[in-house]
Amino acid sequence: MRFIDLQTQYETYKGEMDKAIAEVLTSCQFVNGPQVAKLEATLADYVGVSDAVGFSSGTDSLLAVLMAWSIGPGDEVITSPFTFFSTAEVIAFLGAKPVFVDVRDDTLNIDPAQVEAAITPKTRAIMPVSIFGQCADMTALTAMARKHGLLCLEDGCQSFGGTHHGRRSCGLSDAGATSFFPAKSLGCYGDGGMVFINDKDLGVLLRSIREHGQKVRYHHTRLGMNGRLDTLQAAVLLTKFAHFEEEIAKRQTVARYYLDNLPAGVRGPTVLPENRSVFSQFTVRISQRDQVQAALGQVGIPTAIHYPIPLHHQPAFADRIDPSTLPVATRAAQEVLSLPMHPFLTVAQQDRVLEGLRQAVTQHP
Ligand SMILES: *Cc1c(COP(=O)(O)O)cnc(C)c1O
Fold first, then answer.
1. What's the CATH code, domain 244-363?
2. C-alpha 191 to ligand 1 mean position (Å)
3. CATH assignment of 6-101+108-241?
4. Rounded to an integer, what distance in angstroms lies between the CA atom of residue 13 and that of residue 149?
5. Residue of the CA atom closest to atom 6 of ligand 1
6. Any idea where the domains of the chain sit in the sequence?
7. With a 6 A CB cut-off, is 59 part of the ligand 1 pocket?
């Protein structure tokens, strides 16, 4: 059994995938090939925004937006402590201060009431994370951002394809960024990312930042980065995107089966009625998490911990944040366990996971 089954996915789409990759190899347009612009237009349309800009990773996508907004020293950006490191890394990398506020216990997404309490005159932006495939409370957060004159960037690296009140993740605020890392809901065969916006000038700025701050070739009007999305990755993504909605539907079926059959002592994820999660992770909570994970490992059931250390406990931020704060995120990091989750998971495999889980929880109540 695999935690995420990229092998079966490749075998399923092999004919189309090999053809799409061969087309890039034949054209030799490895950088800025036509597949990149085609993917940007296709995914902008899917998300429901006017523009999308491909990047070399989710991290670079997030970084580029903050650069375009001139976030830097003296600025504060409010974000979640319960996320992958890069969410706050990009804030600190630009010399700004990540301000962590605690998450809700049910969704593990940032708590809007606590965001409002953390706003100071230095706050420039709010950066909610849509964790495990479910959007943060973007309705409350964007209203708050507007009220206080702040920018709002959704870290949608795990939620591409998810919806909030029927509108797609990454198109719900001033900017949304996603990642095409292979393990994400829509993954490429390496690193990739994309920014989604509704602002023409911001699109021009992001495309300039993506290519070393160039306006015209070899004329650099600002500092940027080498942040382009490869043509090969764009071709892979166009191929996978043709099956994406079908895969999301299969993920819903897998998640529903888990939710309906979780044994006692295992708390399943909560999806709020206004959201459709893409279940980039199916993450449960268990009090004896480490023992249960070890027991599952012994019977060949792969699991993962997203994430074992909240960001306010990371050594890289140790000098600036009090680790005794943010109790909900701190406790969640001790209890979370992600189960095998992908569109190709069979009922027989899920039954094995559930039976393993039942036995492990009985042994380690
Ligand atoms: C994966 C991820 C990122 C980073 O994306 P990369 O493509 O790996 O750079 C950022 N934020 C969250 C929440 C993620 O899950």
1. 3.90.1150.10
2. 10
3. 3.40.640.10
4. 46
5. 58
6. 6-101+108-241, 244-363
7. yes
Strands in the chain per DSSP E: 51-55, 76-79, 97-100, 123-127, 151-155, 163-164, 167-168, 175-179, 193-197, 214-216, 219-220, 275-276, 282-285, 336-339
Instruction: Answer yes or no: is pLDDT of 319 > 80.
Output: no
DSSP reduced 3-state for 327: helix
Ligand 1, atom 14: closest residue by C-alpha:
157
Look at the block and give the residue holding tokens 């789409």. Answer: 13
Closest CA to 100 of 343, 356, 311, 316: 311
Ligand 1 centroid, distance to 363 Cα (angstroms): 35
328-343 pLDDT tens trace = 999 999 999 999 999 9
Mean pLDDT of the chain: 97
For ligand 1, is residue 179 a contact (CB within 6 Å)? yes
Q: Is the CB of residue 155 below 6 angstroms from any atom belonging to ligand 1? A: yes
- pLDDT tens, residue by residue, 191-228: 999 999 999 999 999 999 999 999 888 899 999 999 99
Question: Candidates 55, 57, 59, 307: which one to mutate for ligand 1, based on the most atoms within 8 Å of Cβ?
Answer: 59
Please, what is the Cα angle at 204 between 202 and 206, to 5 degrees?
65
45-77: pLDDT as tens digits: 999 999 999 999 999 999 999 999 999 999 999
Residue 331 Cα distances to 91, 186, 285, angstroms: 24, 29, 10
Same fold, 6-101+108-241 and 244-363: no
Task: Kindly report the protein residue whose alpha carbon is nearest to atom 5 of ligand 1.
Answer: 58
Please give the pLDDT value at position 216. Answer: 85
